[in-house]
Backbone:
């Protein structure tokens, strides 16, 4: 992910006149809630010229036929607030019956060609063989 951030800086940020972005590391390491089929993680970034580090908090809600992607962007000082309210916010997110992850039918449904790591690092990284 750090390499991808560096490459994005070279490919787009600098060429389009945007400040350079640096991935500092995990603000929260990836974790998976088996009961709700939700995957969580957060990354900390620094942006050139901005004194406060930024937070990218990501959630993936697994479904029978796909994944719902949710991202919360803010300052690192907002991480405790997001963590404290995460369950309340995510309680509103649920697939309709027959579309839930728990409705998976091994006899008829396809299994995704990528795993949890690809959901965290991004599908592009999986496609180029990093996983």
Residues:
């Amino acid at each position: 992910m750090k390499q991808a951030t560096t490459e994005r800086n070279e490919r787009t940020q600098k060429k389009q006149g945007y400040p350079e972005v640096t991935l500092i590391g995990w603000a929260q390491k990836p974790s998976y809630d088996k009961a709700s089929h939700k995957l969580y993680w957060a990354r900390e970034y620094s942006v050139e010229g901005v004194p406060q580090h930024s937070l990218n908090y990501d959630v993936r809600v697994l479904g029978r036929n796909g994944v719902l992607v949710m991202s919360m962007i803010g300052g690192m000082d907002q991480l405790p607030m997001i963590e404290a309210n995460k369950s309340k916010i995510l309680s509103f997110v649920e697939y309709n019956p027959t579309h839930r992850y728990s409705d998976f039918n091994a006899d008829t449904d396809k299994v995704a060609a990528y795993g949890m790591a690809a959901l965290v690092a991004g599908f592009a990284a999986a496609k180029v063989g990093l996983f």
